[in-house]
Amino acid sequence: MRIHKEAQRSLKLGIDSIIEQFQLPLSFSSEIESEAARAASNFRLEGGDRGDMTDLPFVTLDPATSTDLDQAFYLEQDGDSIVLYYALADIGAFVPHGGCIAQEAWNRGVTIYGIEGKIPLYPISLSQQAASLLPDGPRPAVLVMVAIEKDGAIRLLSVESIYCASRAKLAYDALDMRENPLLEAFAKRMWLNDLSRGAMRIDSPQQEVVADENEPGGVRLELRSRMYSEVVNSALSLAVNIALGELLREAKVGLFRTMDTPNESAIRQLRRSAHAFGIAWDVSESLYDLQRRLDPANTNHQRFLLETRRSGGRASYEVFSEQKKPWHSAIAATYVHATAPMRRLADRYVLDLALLVANRETVPDSLIEILSKLPGVMQRSENRANGVDRAVIDLMEAVSLQHRLGEVLDAEVVDADAGIVQTLEGAIRARATNLPRCNHGDKVKVRIAVADPTKRLVRFSCVM
């Protein structure tokens, strides 16, 4: 597809501006690249106390183009239970504490997407080659085994260091679920677990940029819902993160992913939103009970459930405290991040801790000190990644509309107090002037008044 030259220019200038604004590191130093290459070439699986799991037919499931493969899995039936063998890339086997690679990872915090493809947390020679669970030979990994019962109850069975050999690199868009019945069965049991916890499965669509020569600027935005294979696969990671969260909570140590429940002010706003969406909510009914009876397949119910997730505030990281139970209100569970060790800095250390706790080994003070520093580092890193993500979306929205000034679009009100609307086409959110008195969810028509890629700014004017 051909993208209009002006759109190409706007995109390049916009991306360059984002890179400069957020001071994004597009490459690693020669010292770090050399150290990573040495670590990859010098690593040997022989020796040590890793368990040999190369006989198990692990596979990975990711986007077709992905090469930074954090997770590989194998499922087996054991009586009424389904047992998940979940191998997680052991980046720590290549990256010692305190070295130049680790120091740079602490500076980056997370992999950033949307710029130059992605800006990795670790050098490509490790994160997309030597440490990645690609199907080209044995790899070191941390194995987490979890069993799930018919009623959705999950049990952590073990955590151990292993080496494994993935058999296949499966892709979301080519997966035949009929060939993976245990994968779907595990996910369905996990969804029962969601319901028992009071969590709701909400699969929010994502904006995607599409080159379209029929559009005035050669670019348009559209919403893409997650594929069923993606939703099913995410159940494996969720089960492991919840199981490890419970392990560490019971041990009274750890780094947890948390989110507060909505406060009284947020509940009042949610009651107004429920009314706008046509949802009956009795004053005696709790938010928890309301969520349990809503239907995620109902569009209005789904929008309300998304509102409840946003009302809980931003997710954060917290070390264990006796004064407060670690809790993630959207997940409705004690929960950790441990399943993306090559893409999130904290996951490596949570896995290190889980290995020690699960095997009743002493947790060194040095690891406790590391965990205490991670909440601030991860918050700063996530703030930057989220800022980049928002800036890229703002840029793409402005570029997609810059040749359509004056056009009238259908939209709905998503924040009546702030005058924010979202277009039905492309899900573009922006402020609208001349907005009459309205409620959340009201349908309106808006004219494209401003679409400025240099400022990454879109503004609408309500026409009815």
Strand order of the largest sheet: 1-8-7-4-3
Oligomer: single chain
Coarse structural class: alpha+beta
Largest sheet: 5 strands, mixed
Averaged pLDDT: 90
Cα separation of the termini? 35 Å
Question: Which geometry do the CA atoms define?
Answer: globular
Query: What's the count of strands?
Result: 18
Low-pLDDT parts are: none
Can you give a write-up of this model?
The chain has 464 residues and is an alpha+beta fold. It has two domains: 5-259 and 314-401, no CATH class; 408-462, Beta Barrel (OB fold (Dihydrolipoamide Acetyltransferase, E2P)), CATH 2.40.50. The chain has helices at 5-21, 30-42, 100-108, 124-130, 181-197, 228-251, 264-276, 287-293, 299-311, 345-358, 365-401, and strands spanning 51-52, 59-62, 71-78, 81-89, 112-113, 118-119, 139-148, 154-164, 168-171, 206-211, 219-224, 255-258, 316-319, 408-415, 420-423, 429-433, 443-452, 457-462. A five-stranded mixed sheet has the order 1-8-7-4-3. It has a five-stranded mixed barrel with strand order 14-15-16-18-17. Strands 2-9 form a two-stranded parallel sheet.
